[in-house]
Amino acid sequence: MGRTQGSAPGSTIDESQLIEVTRRLRSLLPDMDSYAADWATAHAALLAAAYPAHFQAIERALEGFDFDVSSAQLDAAVAVRRAAA
Predict the structure, then answer these.
(1) How many CB atoms within 10 Å of residue 52?
(2) Separation CA 64–CA 17 (nearest Å)
(3) Is 8 in contact with 19 (CB distance < 8 Å)?
(4) How far apart are CA 67 and CA 84, in angstroms?
(5) pTM metric for this prediction
(6) Phi, psi of 30, rounded to the nearest 5 degrees
(7) Mean pLDDT of all residues in 7-11
(8) Closest of 69, 61, 68 to residue 40, by C-alpha
(9) Are 22 and 49 in contact (CB under 8 A)?
(10) What are phi and psi of 5, to 5 degrees?
(11) pLDDT tens profile 66-85
């Protein structure tokens, strides 16, 4: 996997980095780890570019410590991205 065009004009997404960031975020959510919000914030540009229709909902849920909603939104975002590929 390499790089693909993101949603913003001229943006490129490093697919291997996206996979790693998404896996780490997904691993933090079931444990209701508050570090998940920090992780998402640290990687906000990548996540927002890769999951433009879902990132704000993921971020809002994390801010409210609603890890179940965050997890569901992340799963939906990944599914949409895979279907578009």
Answers:
(1) 15
(2) 26
(3) no
(4) 26
(5) 0.84
(6) -65, -25
(7) 46
(8) 61
(9) no
(10) -65, 135
(11) 999 999 999 999 999 999 88
The residue ranges of every structural domain in the chain are 13-22+32-84
The residue type found at 34 is S
SS (H, E, C) the chain: CCEEECCCCCCEEEHHHHHHHHHHHHHHCCCCCCHHHHHHHHCHHHHHHHCCCCHHHHHHHHHCCCHHHHHHHHHHHHHHHHHHC
User: How many C-beta atoms lie closer than 10 Å to residue 69's C-beta?
Assistant: 16
Neighbouring residues of 36: CB distance < 8 A, sequence distance ≥ 6? 25, 28, 29, 62, 67, 70
